[in-house]
Amino acid sequence: MNQAPDYSAAYAILKTDTDLEGHGLTFTIGRGNELCLAAIEALAPLVVGRTLESFTEDMSAFWHHVTGDSQLRWVGPEKGVIHLATAAIVNAVWDLYARSEGKPLWKLLVDMSQVIAVLLMAKKFGVPVCPHAGGVGVCEYVQHLSIFDYICIGTTLEDRILEYVDHLHEHSLDPVHIENGCYMPPTAPGYSIEMKPESLEAYEFPNGSVWTERKGSSV
């Protein structure tokens, strides 16, 4: 399976009436990326026009709000394309929340993310958790979760690893920083997922320069 991946991402930016923005992505391996984009656009009315505080005061209610649309639930809610699109929007809200507080996400996290519930259950039943981080922006995401796990839940490095793949970090404004085989804690506010504007412009499908040049050189 996955014999010819063409790593891609549907990228969401939540803009506010200030300079603050929230960035989120969900990655695919090529065809079908446009389905995730369409699903993000279908979910967008659930967040547009709302205040950040209306989400952050009850993140559980926010999650159920995004996944609970009666019509979109029919093609979801927590599987397939709708789930991937939900990830982009929810992570963009977390990014926006952390930026609004001026903190990297790992410093902001308390007890409001679904991932935290997984970490707590893993702690209760003695199951080590290793977040999958196969590049494509996922390393930038999971570093926050693993740091939070170490500080607040696991409090040990025994049976703990954090994957790293040197893949596509050059497109990130705040890429992971590795020293001596270890992740260094991120310090910039947010979820570390914002992409460089020039990368977004060049790789946007189908009109980015990467695609138009490839089309022009095809036989």
Q: CATH topology, anyone?
A: Enolase-like, domain 1
Shape: globular
The count of domains is 1
The sequence of SSEs as H and E is EEHHHHHHHEEHH
The H-level CATH homologous superfamily, spelled out, is Enolase-like, N-terminal domain
Cα end-to-end separation: 28 Å
Low-confidence stretches: none
Q: What is the count of β-strands?
A: 4
Tally of contiguous helical segments: 9
The name of the CATH architecture is 2-Layer Sandwich
- What average pLDDT do the residues reach? 88
- Radius of gyration (CA) equals 18 Å
Which percent range fits the helix content? 40-55%
* Structural classification: mainly alpha
Widest sheet: strand order?
1-2
The profile of the biggest β sheet is: 2 strands, antiparallel
Binned strand content? 5-15%
Please provide a brief summary of the model:
By secondary structure, this protein is mainly α. Helices cover 44% and strands 9% of the residues. The strands form two sheets. It has a two-stranded antiparallel ribbon.
Topology:
Layout: E1 8-15, E2 21-28, H1 33-43, H2 52-56, H3 59-67, H4 80-101, H5 105-108, H6 114-125, H7 138-154, E3 178-179, E4 182-183, H8 197-203, H9 209-217
Antiparallel strand pairs: 1-2, 3-4
Helix pairs in contact: 1-4, 6-7
What would you say this structure looks like, in words?
The chain is mostly helical. It has a single domain (8-205), classed as 2-Layer Sandwich (Enolase-like, domain 1), CATH 3.30.390. It has nine helices and four strands, in the order E-E-H-H-H-H-H-H-H-E-E-H-H. The chain has a two-stranded antiparallel ribbon with strand order 1-2. Strands 3-4 form a two-stranded antiparallel ribbon. Helix 1 (33-43) packs across helix 4 and helix 6 (114-125) packs across helix 7. The chain is globular.
